[in-house]
């Protein structure tokens, strides 16, 4: 494990060397970091980490993004996720896998009342429509690992929420 200062990420290039596969789940919230901070973490830090990983020899980069990611979205969150997807693809990995999970079902240390309410509601909905609106974080993690173990389906592969559920259970 290497602890890095994301404000000085280029000074930590050695931490990104010698890895065949890179996994990125980095992100924050607008509420926690403000709009500028959100863009810096979710787009800029991720893109820079991808560049350092590629320069360090990484062949396959696996990025957790978001359902609905679109660089043309009027919504900041979805627009930034779409922008970072494009930036990571442009780095030129031999293989790039992008996962677009729906609402992540997990227990957090910090309090997010609106998210907690959504998770409670979606937990009930998930019993009827298990792959439609949410996904447990454990399923996303299993899908991220499984995609590395499977043969490539092309230079760039985008896995939507239903795909994540299937792969995460394989």
From TrEMBL:
<dbReference type="GO" id="GO:0005737">
    <property type="term" value="C:cytoplasm"/>
</dbReference>
<protein>
    <recommendedName>
        <fullName>Protein HTATIP2</fullName>
    </recommendedName>
</protein>
<comment type="subunit">
    <text>Monomer. Forms homodimers during oxidative stress. Interacts (via N-terminus) with elongation factor EEF1A1 (via middle-region); the interaction is direct and competes with EEF1A1 binding to guanyl-nucleotide exchange factor EEF1B2, thereby inhibiting GDP for GTP exchange and reactivation of EEF1A1. Interacts with nuclear transport receptors XPO4, IPO5/RANBP5, IPO7, IPO9 and KPNB1 as well as GCN1L1/GCN1 and LRPPRC probably through their HEAT repeats. Binds NCOA5/CIA.</text>
</comment>
<dbReference type="GO" id="GO:0051170">
    <property type="term" value="P:import into nucleus"/>
</dbReference>
<dbReference type="GO" id="GO:0003824">
    <property type="term" value="F:catalytic activity"/>
</dbReference>
<dbReference type="Pfam" id="PF13460">
    <property type="entry name" value="NAD_binding_10"/>
</dbReference>
<dbReference type="InterPro" id="IPR036291">
    <property type="entry name" value="NAD(P)-bd_dom_sf"/>
</dbReference>
<dbReference type="InterPro" id="IPR016040">
    <property type="entry name" value="NAD(P)-bd_dom"/>
</dbReference>
<feature type="domain" description="NAD(P)-binding">
    <location>
        <begin position="4"/>
        <end position="150"/>
    </location>
</feature>
């Amino acid at each position: 494990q290497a602890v890095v200062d994301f404000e000085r990420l280029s000074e930590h290039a050695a931490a990104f060397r010698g890895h065949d596969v890179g996994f990125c789940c980095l992100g924050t919230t607008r509420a926690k970091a403000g709009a500028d901070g959100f863009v810096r973490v979710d787009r800029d830090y991720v893109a820079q980490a991808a560049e350092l990983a590629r320069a360090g020899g990484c062949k396959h980069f696996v990025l957790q993004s978001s359902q609905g990611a679109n660089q043309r979205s009027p919504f900041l969150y979805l627009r930034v996720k779409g922008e970072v997807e494009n930036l990571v693809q442009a780095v030129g990995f031999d293989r790039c896998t992008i996962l677009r999970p729906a609402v992540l079902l997990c227990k957090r240390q910090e309090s997010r009342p609106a998210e907690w309410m959504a998770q409670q509601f979606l937990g009930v909905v998930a019993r009827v429509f298990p792959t439609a609106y949410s996904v447990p974080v454990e399923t996303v993690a299993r899908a991220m690992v499984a995609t590395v173990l499977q043969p490539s389906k092309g230079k760039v592969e985008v896995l939507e929420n239903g795909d994540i559920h299937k792969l995460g259970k394989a």
